[in-house]
Specification:
The complex is a heterodimer of chains A (437) and B (251). The model of chain A has no long low-confidence stretch (mean pLDDT 94). Chain A has a ten-stranded mixed sheet, with helices on one face. By secondary structure, chain A is of the alpha/beta class. Chain A has helices at residues 11-23, 32-47, 62-65, 122-128, 143-151, 384-391, 397-413, 419-434, and strands spanning 94-99, 102-103, 117-121, 156-160, 170-176, 183-184, 187-192, 197-206, 213-222, 227-235, 241-250, 255-262, 267-276, 282-291, 296-305, 311-320, 325-334, 342-351, 357-366, 372-380. Chain B is α/β, with parallel strands linked by helices and 251 residues long. In chain B, the strands form three sheets. Chain B has a six-stranded mixed sheet with strand order 6-9-10-3-11-12, sandwiched between helices. Chain B has a four-stranded antiparallel sheet with strand order 2-1-4-5. In chain B, strands 7-8 form a two-stranded antiparallel ribbon. In chain B, strand 9, helix 7 and strand 10 (199-204) form a beta-alpha-beta unit. Chain B is globular and about 55 Å long. The chains are: A alpha/beta (437), B alpha/beta (251). The A-B interface holds A 384-386, 388-397, 399-400, 403-404, 406-408, 410-411 and B 50-53, 73-75, 77-79, 83-84, 86, 89-90, 92-95, 99-100, 103-105, 107-108, 111, 143, 160, 164.
Chain lengths: 437, 251
């Protein structure tokens, strides 16, 4: 990140400094955690909020978009308010609730149903597992990640033991509860040991109309031969600002699928950093966003092929209505010696109004010579030829559009292996379409 | 009353005049062939009947059962019984053929104030018609026309026509790109749909198709008008003499 002298801090940056100074003594975590916070905040403080001249944040100028820094959210209390992602309510899961950035056992299922799975509060896990060091996944050289590290308030650590599997999806539900705007900084860790299997849902939700802020981070460590499906569902309240950092390390011969579905929030950035650290693995990192009004949603990916013989596929689709702004940045890095890498990236934006904006920035950085890599990006309106074809068969204009949009999104949602989740997301998309006119 | 009356139709596409005073009448139950050289306006006529955006009617009338259809949206025209079998059927990724057929049929029925077809009734209808057209169930589950061969796309058009049961079917160069076996299957599918209640306009450049779909009348189009009409033997005459006699008149 280019350092540049700055004369003035924005009010939000000043508030963050003040908040850190006030809270540093009372934030949770023992020993090394305190040091991590100090270092992270120093780095953040030197750089400030990322802005449009920081290439990685070019389209999401957080300095402009985050005018104020909300006070740290307190515990939710006995009766938390706010709903856990309603669009997932029909799916049977083992639920782990993270309310206002803290693991909330009273809102969670008593225990994850399978043996070989351990669930612990984040800082208890860190204290009990000195071999696990926070921040060893990719994506840690980023101002939003530093901010999360400085303020992390809690979260969950989930470990799937070697060869184990969980029958039901595990659902980490982040909820903001409260009437007054506040900020939450959840950090969670998921370790899937060699040969283990997990379907992990992560959801974000909170009160409609409250301009709360979320800065979340998830560390996902996938062992050799493990299979992980991670589905992130963003249905934040319409005034929320959320930045989620996901750092993933993929071992050898593993299968990793990721899907980021975004409907809610005023400003959302999903930043996903994946490193292939073992040969023979496959990754599919997909996503779909349905945006309207003045929503701003940024999906940023960095896929690092550190070793050879891995396959990665990225497919992102967005439907943009109103004055919404959809951003996709995808970078595939093929390191020297990462031969036989097969990496392909595709992004498509469907613009439903003249005022909507799509920015696609695909990048390839290839340092090996025996690889197959490619990317494609399109942005455009609904094809009038398709619409006419449907209408000529008797389908009214609005229904024809809905069918085409549904098909557009469906093509990527179909990639989700879990049928119930797939159906829930398509149903949410249909509901979104129904609310358009 | 004639099923379709086109009177003095002038149509522009992108500022260019294509139809220049076309007059044509199609009777109920009649199969009318429209032949003509490239650029005579045959496909424009097909699109204008279906209501494709961008086809501007500058003058003239189109009456279906005495009712003007020119101000109707394409879906309203479809509900009134107009069907266009496209020369180049469009691929619709992500929409299964079955879903498409069902959505279209039910939308038309709803528009006409009829009840939706029950699932068993619908499945029976599709199964029977697809069998005659050599369309297997696997194809019906695939997205509309995606990955279909040229012949499969044309058969899919006729399947849609059979399911939607239009009063006026316009077949735009349905023979283009088909080998003789595929042509026979398609023609057989069309002939099965001939009925005193259904009229058809069969647009073709070549006489070949008319050996299989035998028309009641043949109209020749050139320079945006109907320039000659006659019985089915007119098609054979044209095959022998070519279109030059009509295009030369323009000079």
């Amino acid at each position: 990140m280019p350092a540049e002298p700055r004369a003035l801090k924005t009010p939000a940056e000043q508030a963050l400094s003040a908040a850190f100074a006030a809270a540093r003594g009372s934030l949770p975590g023992e020993g090394a955690v305190g040091k991590l916070r100090e270092v992270a905040f120093e780095r953040f403080d030197a750089a400030g909020l990322p802005h449009r001249r920081v290439e990685e944040w070019k389209y999401t100028d957080l300095r402009a978009l985050m005018r104020e820094a909300r006070p740290l959210a307190g515990p939710a209390g006995a009766k938390p308010q706010g709903n856990i992602a309603p669009i997932l309510s029909g799916i049977e899961t083992d639920r782990i609730a993270i309310v206002n950035g803290r693991y909330e056992p009273t809102w969670s299922d008593a225990k994850v149903s399978d043996p070989g799975v351990t669930v612990a509060e984040l800082f208890e896990f860190v204290a009990d597992n000195p071999d696990y060091r926070l921040g060893q996944v990719p994506g840690t050289d980023d101002p939003a990640y530093w901010l999360n590290t400085a303020f992390m308030s809690g979260g969950v650590a989930l470990r799937i033991r070697r060869g184990g599997s969980v029958a039901k999806p595990v659902h980490i539900a982040h909820v903001f509860s409260g009437d007054a705007a506040a900020a939450m900084y959840p950090r969670s860790v998921v370790v899937v040991e060699p040969g283990a299997q997990l379907t992990l849902i992560e959801s974000f939700s909170g009160a409609e109309g409250v301009d709360y802020q979320v800065n979340s981070a998830l560390e996902l460590v996938i062992g050799d031969g493990a299979r992980v499906d991670h589905i992130k569902v963003g249905c934040d309240g319409g005034a929320a600002l959320r930045v989620s950092t996901l750092g993933v390390t993929v071992g050898a011969k593993a299968a990793y699928k990721d899907f980021a579905f975004t409907l809610g929030g005023a400003v959302v950035r999903n930043q996903t950093f994946v490193r292939f650290a073992g040969e023979g693995s496959e990754g599919a990192i997909d996503g779909a966003s349905l945006l309207k009004g003045r929503q701003h949603v940024d999906n940023t990916l960095v896929i690092d092929h550190a070793v050879g013989h891995c396959t990665s596929r990225e497919r992102f689709k967005s439907v943009l209505d109103g004055e919404s702004h959809g951003i996709f940045q995808g970078k595939i890095i093929v390191e020297p010696h990462a031969q036989k890498t097969d990496g392909k990236m595709m992004t498509r934006a469907l613009l439903l109004s003249d005022e909507a904006e799509a920015d696609n920035k695909p990048e390839l950085e290839i340092f090996a010579d025996d690889v197959v890599c490619g990317h494609g990006a399109t942005a455009g309106a609904l094809d009038p030829g398709l619409k006419f074809y449907l209408m000529s068969r008797g389908i009214p204009a609005a229904e024809a559009e809905a069918l085409l949009i549904q098909a557009f999104i469906g093509e990527v949602v179909e990639e989700i292996a879990h049928e119930g989740i797939r159906e829930a997301l398509m149903f949410a998309a249909l509901k979104w379409l129904g609310s358009r006119s | 009353m004639s099923l379709l009356e086109i009177k003095n139709l002038h149509v522009e596409v992108g500022g260019k005049q294509i139809l220049k005073g076309l007059t044509l009448t199609v009777e109920k139950g009649q199969v009318a062939a429209i032949m003509g050289p490239n650029g005579s306006g045959k496909s424009t006529l097909a699109y204008v009947l279906a209501g494709k955006p961008g086809y501007e009617v500058a003058e003239g009338e189109v009456l279906l059962n005495g009712e003007s259809i020119l101000d109707m949206a394409p879906d309203e025209r479809a509900a009134k019984g107009v069907f266009l079998a496209f020369q180049y059927p469009v691929e619709v990724p992500g929409v299964a053929t079955m879903t498409f057929l069902r959505t279209a049929l039910n939308a038309q029925r709803k528009h006409r104030g009829e009840a939706e077809l029950s699932t068993p009734e619908f499945l029976k209808l599709v199964r029977e018609t697809s069998k005659h057209l050599h369309i297997d169930q696997e194809m019906l589950r695939r997205a509309v026309n995606v990955g279909f061969s040229g012949g499969e796309k044309k058969r899919n058009e006729i399947l849609q026509m059979a399911v939607l049961q239009p009063r006026l079917a316009v077949l735009d160069e349905t023979d283009s790109g088909l080998d003789i076996d595929a042509l026979k299957v398609v023609a057989d599918g069309v002939n099965r749909l001939r009925s005193p209640e259904r009229s058809m306009i069969v647009i073709t450049h070549y006489q070949r198709l008319l050996n299989y779909i035998v028309p009641d009348v043949v109209h020749v189009m050139a320079r945006g008008k109907v320039v000659k009409s006659g019985g089915k033997e007119l098609a054979l005459e044209l095959e022998a003499s070519g279109y030059a006699q009509f295009t030369d008149e323009a000079a």
